[in-house]
Amino acid sequence: MTNQTATTRGDRSAAPPRAHGYAPRTYRLALPYPRPPLTANQRHHWARRAHLIAEIRHTTATLARATGIPPLGRCAVRLIWTVTDRRRRDADNLVPTLKACADGLVDARVVADDTPDLMVKHMPEITHGHRAGLALVVEPLGGT
């Protein structure tokens, strides 16, 4: 059973073939937070802030490895926060959480660095749904 699980996790045969390999796949990481753990409006003590950043980085790196995201030359990332009510929210506030997630992808060796030439960070999105939560979408980009 263990061998079967390991084989299934690494299997890329479900992706449609391309001229030189497989078509890029978009990865969606469901982060275990109902709301952003770090926002621009928070005024945490430096030690508390550092702890939150380390936790987000570790969680993102662990999820990226578990999902099986291969090393990518370049990628685009997008943070999506699903909320359950219609209160007004500012998407700019989510940028500190997005930055920590991007660092987590670097920690997982998905990309070499989170500089703009290797990682495009889109503005975070806020959507409405029945279940609150955060998701990080990682999309491979062409080129190296």
Automatic annotation (TrEMBL):
<dbReference type="InterPro" id="IPR036614">
    <property type="entry name" value="RusA-like_sf"/>
</dbReference>
<dbReference type="GO" id="GO:0000287">
    <property type="term" value="F:magnesium ion binding"/>
</dbReference>
<feature type="region of interest" description="Disordered">
    <location>
        <begin position="1"/>
        <end position="21"/>
    </location>
</feature>
<dbReference type="GO" id="GO:0006310">
    <property type="term" value="P:DNA recombination"/>
</dbReference>
<protein>
    <recommendedName>
        <fullName>RusA-like resolvase</fullName>
    </recommendedName>
</protein>
<dbReference type="GO" id="GO:0006281">
    <property type="term" value="P:DNA repair"/>
</dbReference>
